[in-house]
């Protein structure tokens, strides 16, 4: 099945490929570069290319990517749970709802470990999210898959000690991990 999905993706028109990729990461620059890099021989090739592209994204591109993620511990609303990206405004947001629905589903699954936490941990995570945003001016992005709310809170607390330029590098690395998980699902159909 994975080969069929990869073939399907490789054969999509460029615009449709970019829309599919925006499900994974809401940075239009990343999606355009990924679509232009096709065809990919394997899902792993696409994941490697994605990592390289994320490594070159500008802060505005990273900001667009962050707009596609809810705060850790918050449940996104697929129709309006994310703030619009700069590209949504430029493009009129015409295809936003389907993209946001898949991204919301992924985020909910990736953050499922937070749901099992007690109210005290959830409140602490919400407070730490606010502190992080005040310090860095953007949401806390972390690859949450398979982690508990307490673990994510510990990571967030540690990251509050970073300098802003260092934190952007951590954001970049976390985005690479998240994109890899999501691309694996799109291109190979595996969780």
Tags for this model:
UraD-like, 11 helices
Write structural notes for this entry.
The structure is a single chain. This protein is mostly helical. The chain has a domain at 2-111 and 167-188: UraD-like (Orthogonal Bundle), CATH 1.10.3330. It has helices at 2-11, 14-24, 28-36, 43-54, 59-66, 86-91, 96-110, 112-115, 119-136, 149-159, 164-188. Helix 2 (14-24) packs parallel to helix 7 and helix 4 (43-54) runs antiparallel to helix 11 (164-188). The protein is elongated and about 50 Å long. It starts with a helix and ends with a helix. The model is unreliable at 78-100 (pLDDT under 50).
What is the compact description of this entry?
This protein is 68% helix and 0% strand. It has 191 residues and is mostly helical.
Mean pLDDT: 83
Could you describe the largest sheet, including whether it forms a barrel? none
Please state roughly what percent of the residues sit in beta strands, choosing from under 5%, 5-15%, 15-25%, 25-35%, 35-45% or over 45%.
Answer: under 5%
What is the 3D form? elongated
Give the SSE string: HHHHHHHHHHH
DSSP E strands, number: 0
Question: For this structure, what is the CATH homologous superfamily of one domain?
Answer: Oxo-4-hydroxy-4-carboxy-5-ureidoimidazoline decarboxylase
Query: Can you count the helices?
Result: 11
Helix percentage range: 55-70%
Radius of gyration, in angstroms, nearest whole number: 16 Å
């Amino acid at each position: 099945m994975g080969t069929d999905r990869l073939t399907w993706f490789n054969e999509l028109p460029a615009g449709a490929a970019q829309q599919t990729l925006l499900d994974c990461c809401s940075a239009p620059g990343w999606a355009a570069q990924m679509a232009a890099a096709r065809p990919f021989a394997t899902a792993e090739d696409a994941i490697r290319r994605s990592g390289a592209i994320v490594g070159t994204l500008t802060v505005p591109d990273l900001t667009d990517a962050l707009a596609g993620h809810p705060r850790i511990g918050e449940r996104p609303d697929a129709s309006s749970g994310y703030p619009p990206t700069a590209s949504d405004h430029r493009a009129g947001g015409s295809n936003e709802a389907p993209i946001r629905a898949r991204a919301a589903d992924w985020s909910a699954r990736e953050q499922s470990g937070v749901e099992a936490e007690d109210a005290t941990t959830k409140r602490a995570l919400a407070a730490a999210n606010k502190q992080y945003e005040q310090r860095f001016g953007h949401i806390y992005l972390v690859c949450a898959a398979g982690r508990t709310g307490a673990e994510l809170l510990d990571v967030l607390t540690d990251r509050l000690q970073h300098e802003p330029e260092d934190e952007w590098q951590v954001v970049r690395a976390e985005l690479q991990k998240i994109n890899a998980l999501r691309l694996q699902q799109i291109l190979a159909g595996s969780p």
